[in-house]
């Protein structure tokens, strides 16, 4: 029996039309769903990216024993009488942003370091007569505070303080204002850039004297701040 010759290409029979089954339909639906989810994810990603780009954040750090790097806005005295029995004494300064925000940002602060002497020891070393047991107990409870006030698009005011009974606070206020800080400590501060190099080497400004006395008498507080605002 002779073998049948292979048909020419033009003679090949047309393929029969594909019959769609449930398996095919499910596969197509899955492909369409995956594509839709992919597009949705891309849209959310682009939207999130737009939100991030429209938000500006600035971060800074200060130590209470240094007027740098912005010597035009040094630390100076701060006090707040919280109640008839408790007050806060410390230092405050204006903080300028590297670049003004379009609107006033939200600013949060936190202590990065706290190196404060026991306040009952501070009182004794500054000449305060501690005889009241209630004052003694309260001075052993270290209270430190950090505040943000007067927030503007270009700057804000930072304040760091320690809490103590009002009679002790009044005594400390006078001591920090009137006492001349040790000359050797001032020289070290100048050498390490904590004081304005353009200021007089023989006499401190009232702001510099307060900062140096707070450093020598009470201690040092490190503060980190974060400013955030949505841009227009």
What topology does this entry show?
Layout: H1 22-53, E1 55-63, E2 76-81, E3 86-96, E4 106-116, H2 119-125, H3 133-140, E5 143-149, E6 155-165, H4 166-178, H5 183-191, H6 206-217, E7 219-230
Antiparallel strand pairs: 1-7, 2-3, 3-6, 4-7, 5-6
Which descriptors would you attach to this protein?
7 strands; 2 domains; three-stranded antiparallel beta sheet; single chain; 232 residues
3D architecture notes:
The chain has 232 residues and is an alpha+beta fold. The protein folds into 2 domains: 33 residues; 176 residues, Immunoglobulin-like (Sandwich), CATH 2.60.40.2080. The protein is 35% helix and 29% strand. A 4-stranded antiparallel β-sheet has the order 2-3-6-5. It has a 3-stranded antiparallel β-sheet with strand order 1-7-4. Strand 5 and strand 6 form a beta hairpin. The chain starts with 21 loop residues before the first helix and ends with a strand. The N terminus is likely disordered.
Summarize the structure.
This protein is of the alpha+beta class and 232 residues long. 35% of the residues lie in helices and 29% in strands.
